[in-house]
Amino acid sequence: MDLNLVRKLVKLLSESDVDEIEIEEEGKKIRIAKHPSRFAMAPQVAPLYPVAEAARPAAPAAGAPVPAPAPSANIHEVRSPIVGTFYRAPAPDAAPFVQVGSDVQAGNVLCIIEAMKLMNEIESDSAGKVVKVLVENGQPVEYDQVLFILEK
Amino acid sequence: MFKKVLIANRGEIALRVIRVCRQFGIKTVAVYSQADRDSLHVRFADEAVCIGPPPSKESYLKIPRIIAAAEITNVDAIHPGYGFLAENAGFAEICTTSGIKFIGPTHQMIASMGDKALAKDTMKKAGVPVVPGSDGVVPTVGEALEIARGIGFPVIIKAVAGGGGRGMRIVREESELENAYKTAQHEAGQAFANADVYIEKFVEQPHHIEIQVFGDQFGNAIHFGERDCSVQRRHQKLIEESPSPFVDEALRKKMCEAAIKGCKAVGYENAGTIEFLVDKDKNFYFMEMNTRIQVEHPVTEQVTGHDLVKLQLQVAAGERLPRTKIPQRGHAIECRINAEDPANNFRPSPGRITDFHMPGGFGVRVDTHSYNGYQVPPYYDSLIAKLVVYAQTREGAVNKMSSALEEFTIEGIKTTIPFHRQVMRNENFRAGKFDTSFLDSFQFVPEEQ
């Protein structure tokens, strides 16, 4: 395996929005990914509208904020376990559950996702500080969509 | 007509429905598991919603996620395809209470035809010939024995909640009955969470012949002729054709009339198929009714010139069925191309397709979600393409299928293409002489692939 090639590919990957490169040549295959442990690679910003042509799941939308530039053990993504509509607060006139800067424990409610007229309280699966809220109030979310970034 | 439809399915049928919607100018919403992110149905829908991880239980069968997806995309209707939730009465009911039109029959019709013993009883009362058997559930061994003696051996013990060939036991002699009864109950309890069984006369080496029916919201019922689906392996259909080489005009008339009677008896709505067993003496018996569009519907489309999925949408939107008799002409055959290895007991063969080329030409149709580079996932059924040919005669259709199969190229995974090629060369198949025991004695010869 050509180490120079590997170095170049790693550099290419870290300098771009691309999450994963796979090259096969003459029976040799190399795959380099930014988040190798995760199944779903695509940054999940506005995934529902309109998913046409090249803007399919793998390609990040131009100008869309990509969460966390580099994977590190400190960063935790809270993902939606269901499909529904995202709400930041328990009621329309109430204060949001969390803000950027809030400290949360595992088990704290971060938001509500409404599905089939039921309000599902979504609990954090990790302790940490909220550094980013990726979804707007009232926005539809799909399964596994990233909702919050926590810094541990 | 609907403005937006969600397709609660995947693979080739999802793409099929999306195509019809596009023709009507209906917007489409695809739902997909993480394993289907690069699937064609996701690519060609107007919107797509990820509903879960790869396992079906966690995605395509997850009713709350599908309904939630329908709500956030504001669809008018859901098309359930086949399999998955297509015959789930609970799902159909939830669609209705959520204000979404379920493209298919009502949940009551699904429930009544889904209970095999009840369905048989309903048909019997409507004057449709049924296989002699118990009147409903057989609760004790003692009754089982009495009924079996009355019908005459061989008999078959079947699960009330079963289907697709599962939860069945054939009993040839009285001495085997008690064990078979208890085993069948145990198996049924495990597989379907319902240990109830019923008993029927076992029809030896029957032909499996089904009638495509349609009902509308105005009480009309029509038929589109028959399909012969006798070429089956372990009760899974592999090849279907229309018309059936075994059915003559007199039998066709009787069977279609019976099917219409059955349809009207339940006030059936939308697409349905009534399956019959036909013995060597051309006696036919109701087996079950499938309350959905079926995999092999293209065969009927080719010989009648009607788009059945389009008709589903029209009927669901409140239109009347055509009043004229449906014409039948020519001959159509479908081969199910599965990602399975016929040289190794049809073992599933998921993986990446490295070379993909479909046949084409006059009277050659391929319904598929596969493409060059597609990664066939291991989580779902193995059907990756349907090759359907149409010709003016059966001989013409068999020859055309042979030549289309020669051209059909799928590399990187094993498929049933080599198997189908050999069936098309088989003397009995070519002569139209086969029943459901055909594949029991068919020997596949492994080739160099």
How are the strands of the largest sheet of chain A arranged?
Answer: 3-10-8-5
CATH topology grouping of the largest domain in chain B? D-amino Acid Aminotransferase, Chain A, domain 1
Determine and state the CATH class of the largest domain in chain B: Alpha Beta
Please identify which CATH superfamily of the largest domain in chain B we are dealing with.
ATP-grasp fold, B domain
Largest sheet of chain B: 8 strands, antiparallel
Total beta-strand segments of chain A:
10
What percent strand of chain A? Answer: 25-35%
Provide the gyration radius of chain A in Å: 18 Å
Shape of chain B: globular
Q: Averaging pLDDT over every residue of chain A, what do you get? A: 76
Measured by DSSP, the beta-strand proportion of chain B falls in 25-35%
Shape of chain A: elongated
Rg of chain B, nearest Å: 22 Å
- Could you tell me the mean pLDDT of chain B? 95
Largest interface: A-B, 23 and 25 residues
Helix content of chain A: under 10%
Tell me the CATH superfamily of the domain at 65-151 in chain A.
RNA polymerase II/Efflux pump adaptor protein, barrel-sandwich hybrid domain
Helix content of chain B: 25-40%
What is the annotated CATH architecture of the domain at 65-151 in chain A? Beta Barrel
Number of domains of chain B: 3
